[in-house]
Structure formats: structure tokens, C-alpha cells
Design a protein that fits this description.
With 291 residues, the chain is α+β, with helices and mostly antiparallel strands. The protein has 3 domains: 4-72, no CATH class; 76-165, Luciferase, domain 3 (Roll); 168-289, GMP Synthetase, Chain A, domain 3 (2-Layer Sandwich). 30% of the residues lie in helices and 24% in strands. The protein has helices at 4-17, 20-27, 32-43, 61-68, 133-138, 179-186, 219-236, 268-274, 276-280, and strands spanning 52-54, 74-80, 85-89, 103-104, 108-112, 117-122, 140-141, 144-153, 159-164, 169-170, 176-177, 192-198, 206-211, 246-248, 287-289. Strands 5, 6, 7, 8 and 9 form a 5-stranded antiparallel sheet that branches. A hairpin with a 5-residue loop joins strand 8 and strand 9 (159-164). Residues 13-130 form the AMP-dependent synthetase/ligase domain. It is an enzyme of class 6 (ligase). InterPro entries: AMP-dep_synth/lig_dom, ANL_N_sf.
Amino acid sequence: MSVPRLWAKFQAQILAKVPDHRLQVILSIPVLGKLFAKRIRQQLGFSCCGSFGSGTAPISPSLLTWWQRLGVNIGEGWGMTELSGAATGNSPFQAAHLGTIGTPFDELELKLSAEGELMVRGEPVFKEYYNNPEATESSFEGDWFKTGDKAIKNADGSWRITGRVKEQFKTAKGKYVAPVPLESLVEANIYIEQSCVVGSGMPQPVALVVLNAQHGQSKAAVEKTLLATLDSVNAAVESHERLDRLIVVKSPWTIENGLLTPTMKLKRNEIEAATKILVEQSVSGKLIWEE
């Protein structure tokens, strides 16, 4: 079990030695491709692993698919301390559930509120917050615990988290935008290690991105892929969700600089504060590089 950022870092280490286009050609060759993938798994220490998992934050479906080509089937899970830990999982791994958090474990029921918030009830759900009756009362509707996550239930019974209720922001046009689905699309670009979509009070959202330091490509080549990513994202979303531009920031977001939580989730408010001047500067162009 690992967090999405470490899966992305493992990927970056591989691509630093074998460019992705060359890797995909090798993997497509019968017999040789399987032997090559096995060798990579051995070098990563995965030979003795019976299963692979990801949790604590959303992981890009494109990253899951990339690992699947190497024979590493990563099952995504979801849970909370209030639910006694893990609550759902794509385990045992099912390819049809790729990009979802799987199905709920025994003794847990899931449903959506009218606003699309994921709610849970069952034996593993905690009883109350210690010495905080107000927080306890606001966290329950009857015996249903309000998780604070927005979700979608798929036709096959699996679930997909689309973000936190409090992460949504309203643009200057009065439309609400959920950043997580957009970030998932942006991170389909293998050269992007981290992304954070912002845009509260702005005409259109923008995406802040941190590049993989080991990408090994020229700036011109990276710019070409970034602009292609911007076009593909905007072609896939509603008009009010379309990204006005991509902003490449110089330094990664880490636990040490206070921009990631200890579980490597984005500290959105802190990232927005740290990049406020960069985001609000009056510049033209669809791709901006922090100086």
C-alpha cells in the first residue's frame, strides 16, 4: 500500500532510465515485453508482493493504467479514522473497477445525500467525537455519518470519489467547480507530478503544476505535451470547468514546506496563498512558467 505521489515517483524513476515511448514499444513485444516488465518489478522489490494498493488521496486512472501494463495491478481504497480505517477497496483487484475505490466492506452501507455527499452507516462507524458533541451532531443524519466526500456510484456497484465538499469553489460566473476530477485529467500527462486547480472568484479556473524533475525532456518538448494536455482536458469538461491556463511552478509541494499534509494530500489553502501573486499576475498565454 502506498500513496499516489509515491506511485508517481516510482514511475518517474523508471522513465528517467527508459523513455515512455521506448518502454511502450518494448512492452508491446510478445515474450520480451513480459520479461522486461518482470525485470522492472524485481528491481523495485515487487517480486514478493501479492497485491498493490493506493490510498489517502485520489490517484489518476492514467497512472493506474500505466502500472497495469507492467503487471502491477493497483487497487484503490478509501477510508477514514471515523470508520475504523479502510471502508472500501478494489480488492481483490478487478480491472473493471480501475479508477474507482471499489465496493464497501462487510457491515458498511453507503449512500449519497441529495447534494452528492457520501454517507456511511454500519458497525465500524464511530460513536462520537471525544468531548465535542457539537461536531458529533453536525456529522450525522440519524445513523448515517456524513463523510465530507463527494462521490458517484457506478452501475456495477463500485464507487468513485470526486472530491471534498469543501474543496469546491465558485468562479466569477457563479458556477461551482470540483478541482479533483480536473486534476486527475491534468495528471494523465506523465511529465506532471503534482497539480492543483484553483479559481475561486476568477472567470475560469487555472491549474498549477509541478513537473517531474527526472523527465529528461527539453523545455520545448515538455511545452508541447503540456499544451496538448490543456486542450484535451478542456475538450472533456463543461465550459465553466475549462482551464484558462497551466502554470508551471518551480518547487514541488512537500510536507517540509507545509504544502502537503503528513499523508501527502494537498494543503489547498496554503498552496493558493503561496501562489496568489503568480496566479493573479496579468500575463497572456496558455502556459506560464514561474521565474
